[in-house]
Amino acid sequence: MAKKQKQEDAPAGSPAWMATFSDLMNLLLCFFVLLFSMSSIDQKRWEEVAASFNATFSIFSGGAQAIGDGILISNGVSQLNQLDDYINSTGKAAEDTDAPKENIMEEAEKQKMAASEELEEKVSEAVSEAGLDELVELSYTSQYVEMTLNGALLFESGSANLSADAGAVLDQVGLILERYGESTIEIEGHTDSVPINSAKYPSNNELSDARALSVFYYLMEHTSLDPAKVKHSGRGEYNPIADNSTAEGRALNRRVEIKIYNSLSE
C-alpha cells in the first residue's frame, strides 16, 4: 500500500499578489488626491509655491538659458499672471470670461436689431420719395426689414398674373432693393382663404408659390439683383393679416412680402 505524502502547509502571511495590489491602490489614491488638490489651486498660494521653487532650485529662471528667450519662458513665473492676456491676444477666449454666454447673445441680438432699425429708416425714406406710402407697409425684426405690397394692386382673386398697375410699383421696389439689398432677399407669396381647385392651381399653396415667382421673375428681368441672393416661397392662406370674411380683408391677404435681411443676420 502506497504511503500518503504529507501536504505542505501554506506560507504564512498574505499572498504576494495582494501586496502588489495594495501598492497599486495606494498609488492610485495618491494620484487622484493630487488631481483633486490641483483642481482648486489658489492663485496666491500657487505664486508662493512657484517663488519657493524658483528661489530653491532655480527651475524657472533657467528656462531662458535652456530654451531660449521667448514669451512666457524667459520671464518665468512673472509671466503666469499675464496668461489670460496672452491667450486672448492669440484670438482665443480666456477660460474665466466675465461675460456669460447669455449676455453675449443678448448683445448680439441688440446689435442686429439696431442694424434692422437703421435699414428700416433708409428704406422708409426711399419708399416715401417714390410715393409708395399708401401701397407699401414696412415692419422689421432683428433679422430683416419687411415690405408688404398691397395685394389688391398686384393680383386678382385666384390669379398669379401681375395686374397692369403692378409693374410701376415693382419698378420702384426694385430700385430700393438694388440700393439696400446687400444680403439675402426673400419673396413670399400669400393668398386669401377662398378655396381654389383648378388645373393650374390645385390649391392655395400652388397659387401662393406662383405669386412669389411672378414677382421674382419681374424683378430679375427689370433689375440687376443677383438671383443667387433672392429666395422665393409660397405661404398659402395660413398667415392672414386681415379678416378673410370681408372682400377688403381678402384683398389685403392677397399680398407679397419682401424681406430684406440686414448684414448681421448671416
Question: What this model shows, in words?
Answer:
By secondary structure, the protein is of the alpha+beta class. The protein folds into two domains: 42-93, no CATH class; 103-261, 60s Ribosomal Protein L30, Chain: A. It is built from nine helices and five strands. The protein has a five-stranded mixed beta sheet. Helix 7 (166-180) packs across helix 8 (204-222).
Fold topology:
Layout: H1 16-39, H2 43-57, H3 63-67, H4 83-89, H5 101-129, E1 136-140, E2 144-149, H6 151-154, H7 166-180, E3 185-189, H8 204-222, E4 230-234, H9 247-253, E5 256-261
Parallel strand pairs: 3-4
Antiparallel strand pairs: 1-2, 2-5, 3-5
The mean pLDDT is 81
Q: Which fold does the CATH topology of the largest domain refer to?
A: 60s Ribosomal Protein L30, Chain: A
Strand composition percent? 5-15%
How many strand segments?
5
CATH superfamily of the largest domain: OmpA-like domain
Distance between the termini: 99 Å
From the spread of the alpha carbons, the general shape counts as: elongated
CATH architecture descriptor of the largest domain: 2-Layer Sandwich
Strand and helix order: HHHHHEEHHEHEHE
Detail the poorly predicted runs.
Answer: 59-74
User: How many domains is the backbone divided into?
Assistant: 2
Q: What profile does the largest beta sheet have?
A: 5 strands, mixed
Helix amount: 40-55%
- Supply the helix-strand structural class: alpha+beta
- Rounded to the nearest angstrom, the radius of gyration is 37 Å
CATH class wording of the largest domain? Alpha Beta
Helical segment count: 9
The side-by-side strand order for the widest beta sheet comes to: 1-2-5-3-4
